[in-house]
């Protein structure tokens, strides 16, 4: 067994803290986009998930995702309540305490269901949201994390996902689309304005997400070395390029350079570079950012044309951005960046793109089916939506009996 | 790859140059009062 490395451990714990910040940042990003009467409820979604999954993860989430493999499908219960997960290194990271690796992964498990909340904003019953989050984390996130990172079948197949294109973004983005379809549109959707109540809050949230994403991607190197530095650089570059692209496309399309568009574009770029960040160089990150800006913007226009009320465009940004990033990894990956990985299409290994496509397809189908089943069960026993009168009143008052602003 | 990276950035710069520059005409106080 290798000795614990102080630099690696310090970087991983700092990265875990950076990723933790992303969930409240997401709350601000989403909170600014909703109407004034729903801002507290929207921020509460993210904050509550931070608390809920922190406990779920230590009790059974971590062992389901990363415990000893059972048939390539799920982890065993050997590490339930973190039995045997201590200060010595575990099997996934030989130079850091197992607990440090566990808590870093916890923050990924926290933010993933929080991403979905943007799709059902302004209309979901809080109790339904609580039950949904617990079931979704257990039956969707934990198994898919195991498939890719925990020694499961996609990892064995050779799928590359450095920091969560399939595990985090495709699962949450596709589940968001299913949730939007199952819950139905908000009262007044398409008839009345539902403009963001505070764009400044959204830009602040996007900026904090960008900051935290350095932990998400560069932290996924697990070591404090060259691979982390590469992931940091390509993450920043793709985010910037996607923000520039989204703003430009929206400027040409709608006649003005949108501030919210630039913020959404940055997030789309961060999403797309996530699976690729440990495998591609900086030129590829520019192309990945360009693609993210174009594809995600286009996907949102199409979703709107079909009048799907994915309230805060989760599917367009995370589902499409995650799928683009996962496939782009199969195109641009090179062992020149990561000698422990594999080449992609351009470096002469077209088979990798096929493996990436299988990973994308499996994540889409599994998360869509499971989310649909979970939502239907909750609707049966708890009820998904608040009554129309409460929706009109706003969720801050009807669900939490509080108001965001006294001014 | 490097060529494509430079080219894609150049396309954005061209986009900014050709993008519309319309602005909303400010409404004067007199016009506001008239409209009221």
Q: Look at the structure and give the mean pLDDT of chain A.
A: 97
Structural class of chain A: mainly alpha
Q: Percentage of helical residues of chain A?
A: 55-70%
List the strand order in the largest sheet of chain A: 1-2
Globally, the shape of chain A reads globular
Tell how many strands the DSSP assignment of chain A holds. 2
Sheet with the most strands, sense and barrel status of chain A: 2 strands, antiparallel
CATH architectural designation of chain A? Orthogonal Bundle
Radius of gyration over C-alpha positions of chain B, nearest whole angstrom = 20 Å
- Straight-line distance between termini of chain B: 60 Å
Top CATH class of chain A: Mainly Alpha
What's the end-to-end separation of chain A, in Å? Answer: 60 Å
- Percent of residues in helices of chain B comes to 55-70%
Oligomer: heterodimer
Give the count of helical stretches of chain A: 14
DSSP E strands of chain B, number: 0
Stretches with pLDDT under 50, minimum 5 residues of chain A: none
H/E element string of chain B?
HH
Low-pLDDT parts of chain B are none
CATH names the topology of chain A as: Ammonium transporter fold
